[in-house]
Amino acid sequence: MEINEVPEIRRGAMCYLPWTIRDVIKAAVIVVISLIGLVFSLAVVAVIRRDIVSDLRNASLLLGVAAFAEAQLFLVTVLFTVVKYRQPWACLGFRPSRVGATLPTTLVVLAGLAINVVYVSLVRGLGLDFLMPQPLPRFITQQGPAGIVFGLIAVVIAPLAEEAFFRAFAFTAAAQRYGAVRGAIISSVLFSLAHFQIAGIVPFFLLGMLLVWLYLRTSSIWSCVIAHLAYNFLVLAVT
């Protein structure tokens, strides 16, 4: 695939986006394999040293795996864009937002919350209990170190890592190959599936589409990070 300038993604910015769908697939495979390796290693430790696993407790293990997954998403994004093709961070979307980004960012947050409310109402009204979002684990909703760490992961680490991977990396690669609309659909499907929640497939997909629109509207991944951060914070606060 030739390296093409994509002004519709960068709003006229002189950036070339050489990464491709193959790069996204390779990056995703690396993340999946690394997670499988981590889980397998923990399982082996659980069998050999039950005392260690008991001391760590389930909360610490779950938070560790979550933090590892988010870190991997960000790492492979950087490796297959900035490092591999020697592109500036600005071409990955790490640039100041365009003037007037506050309103569309706020609209995306509000629309994402509205989608959740409507989705839950429809699912409950139709009696489709298996599609109802699962409550957060008890250790998260209670005050304490585990809840604080989870909050940091959900509100700080996850928005940065996921926006870098799914919007700045996956979307731009797919958009160059299939066009902006199909690219948005592909990246949003990946975004929803990555959360491993059957009940969240539709809301996460729609949120992903909104974040792609925001990315195109503001030409900055920071707007998406802020919107994602605010959305997660409000959901967590309500929970």
Topology:
Elements: H1 7-10, H2 21-48, H3 50-83, H4 102-126, H5 138-141, H6 145-178, H7 180-193, H8 201-218, H9 221-238
Distance N terminus to C terminus? 46 Å
Quick check: average pLDDT?
A: 85
* Count of discrete alpha- or pi-helical segments spanning 4 or more residues: 9
Secondary-structure-derived class: mainly alpha
- Biggest β-sheet, characterized? none
Descriptive report:
The protein is an all-alpha fold. The chain has one domain (7-238). It is built from 9 helices and no strands. It is globular.
For this entry, give a set of tags.
globular; mainly alpha; 9 helices
Quick overview:
With 239 residues, the protein is an all-alpha fold. Helices cover 75% and strands 0% of the residues. It has one domain.
